[in-house]
Design brief:
Blueprint lengths: L4 E2 L2 E5 L6 H14 L4 E6 L5 H14 L3 E7 L2 H10 L3 E5 L8 E8 L2 E2 L2 H12 L11 E3 L3 H6 L14 E4 L6 H11 L3 E4 L17 H10 L4 E5 L6 E4 L4 E2 L1 H14 L7 E5 L4 H9 L3 E5 L3 H11 L3 E3 L5 E3 L8 H15 L3 H4 L7 E7 L9 H14 L4 E6 L5 E7 L3 H19 L1
Parallel strand pairs: 3-4, 3-5, 4-8, 9-10, 9-11, 14-15
Antiparallel strand pairs: 1-2, 2-6, 5-6, 6-7, 11-12, 12-13, 16-17, 18-20, 19-20
Length: 431
């Protein structure tokens, strides 16, 4: 984590931390960080997003970079355009955060920046240049939409007959989602499609699944699909159940395996995955990698080994054989294609035992407790006690003074007792 860059770009309160000056200097820093002459810029629907996007453009132009500007789009659309055109990419968004926040995601030819590139941009933010190069050119990216839509040529012609409602969170994919769903469904209704600059993620989208679930119950739909504010994630529900990212990956992976499209019979998940699902994967002869939590770790594992699919339980899903980055809309259409091919419901395809799963946040604790030798020995014993088909993950929060304890086991009583034992151990060392 740098001075300005966090785990997913720059994030902060709009017009306060993330103001016109910071945005302008980020634009200037692009010229120092990358040996590229062009940058494409897009943004979500937040009130502050146009200001930030145009100020990044101004900074880039002042350093002689040529800017292609699109406007409202999803993060995967922006990343794909940058990759296909070998350009710098700038996406102005704070994803699932409220409208009062905003952020700047920076891409190098479609891939998120590394720490060295981010340090170079931060140097310019702190020590801005007053020397202006020949001014760059500014034009609209008029081929932006056409390029993205070609991704869907990977699907054969099909029209899902499932009654679907989908929620765009009043965010970045609300326009493209309508276009794509109309192409691949017979009965789909869009909600969360009236952005006003202030209502992105407000009681809607993938962070408020009760909204879409209530809607499909009240209107007798079969399936609900919800995206986050910048469109790179999705979650799904029916009238009884909310399905998380790992479960969607599981269904798609089984389809790929059956059709000989799953490279090495292998997928990529994170260490937070439910042990019941992992057991089901073993039973289906599908192997897996478990990375640290964070889409950058999943992405690295996928791309280094050219695996077909991977993602996070939060709904960030990468179908690597089609697109190099997570895209909620693409994953949604692939899921509908799978359901159409099987002629089965999502519930029928998820016929494995999902283990009890619990996350406990231990607050107001010195996170260095986890570095103590006795703590490491204790946690190792607890993990051994749980057995192989179980999950124990104890990690410090990156943003808060707390330790996150995650436990999953076939027996709920074991889950409860394990968390209690760990909490008592930590509290005794705290005092």
């Amino acid at each position: 984590m740098g001075k300005y860059f966090g785990t997913d770009g720059i994030r902060g309160k709009a017009f306060i931390k993330l103001n016109e000056t910071l945005a302008f200097r980020v634009g200037q820093g692009l010229a120092k960080a990358f040996d590229l002459s062009e940058v494409v810029i897009g943004h979500d629907t937040r009130q502050s997003s146009p200001m930030i996007a145009y100020m990044v453009a101004s900074g880039a132009l002042s350093m002689g970079l040529n800017v292609r500007f699109y406007g409202v789009c999803s993060t995967p659309m922006l990343a794909y355009y940058a990759k296909e055109n070998s350009m710098i990419g700038i996406m102005v968004t704070a994803s699932h955060n409220p409208y009062t926040d905003n952020g700047i995601k920076v891409f190098n030819k479609g891939y998120k920046t590394n720490s060295d590139e981010e340090k170079l941009i931060e140097e310019v933010i702190d020590h801005p240049t007053t020397i202006m190069n020949d001014f760059g050119t500014f034009k609209l990216a008029d081929d932006f939409l056409e390029l993205y839509e070609k991704l869907y040529d990977a699907f054969p012609d099909f029209k899902s007959t499932i009654k679907i409602a989908y929620d765009s969170a009043n965010g970045g994919n609300y326009e493209i989602a309508k276009s794509i769903f109309e192409k691949y469904t017979r009965s789909a209704i869009q909600i969360g499609n009236k952005p006003d600059g202030l209502n992105i993620n407000v009681d809607c989208g993938s962070t408020h699944m009760d909204h879409i679930q209530d809607y499909i119950i009240e209107n007798n739909f079969d399936l609900g699909i919800s995206f986050d504010g910048d469109g790179d994630r999705l979650l799904v529900c029916d009238k009884e159940t909310i399905y998380e990212g790992d479960e969607i990956i599981y269904v798609i992976a089984k389809f790929l395996r059956q059709n000989l499209l799953l490279k090495d019979h292998h997928i990529v998940l994170t260490k937070m995955s439910n042990p019941g699902l992992l057991k089901a994967l073993k039973d289906d002869d599908i192997t897996y990698s478990l990375t640290d939590v964070g889409d950058k770790y999943v992405t690295k594992e996928l791309h280094e080994n050219n695996y077909s699919i991977g993602g996070e339980n939060s709904g960030h899903i990468i179908i690597n054989q089609i697109l190099h980055t997570g895209d909620g809309l693409l994953a949604a259409i692939y899921l509908l294609y799978v359901l159409d091919s099987y002629k089965k419901t999502l519930k029928e395809l998820l016929n494995y035992e999902k283990y009890p799963y619990q996350l406990y946040n231990l607050k107001d604790v010195d996170k260095t407790i986890l570095d103590l030798a006795e703590t490491k020995v204790f946690l190792k014993k607890m993990k051994h006690k749980l057995g192989d088909d179980a999950l124990l993950l104890v990690r410090p929060s990156g943003t808060e003074p707390l330790i996150r304890i995650t436990v999953s086991h076939q027996n709920q009583h074991v889950v409860d007792n394990t968390i209690n034992e760990i909490v008592q151990f930590m509290k005794q060392r705290r005092s």
